[in-house]
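Below is the record:
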Amino acid sequence: MDNGLLFDARARVLADLQARQHATAAAVSALEDAVAQRKWWAEQWPEGEAYVAGLVAQDVQDALFETVGRWPLCTDCGADAPVHTLYIQPDLGGPDPVWVCEESGDVVAPLGGL
């Protein structure tokens, strides 16, 4: 397992957490847990290393949903749109994960670029 991929995944998700003011202790803890779990996962399936960053983002998104609610919220659709989230595309998380608006289907930003 290339630890550089894990550090990159961590940095990209942390950047997005910070960009949306969600880099709380609980969120960073969820991020650390996700990175540790995906390290094990990638060690079991080395061909899956390209998917690690997107999967870490999805893991953090799932963990935050259970504790604080939906993240990240879409800010591109305007005030008239219902509150909705972004999700990682492609579904498996890679190899080039992007945040996509669940309402419009538009690509909002690459992972790490919110």
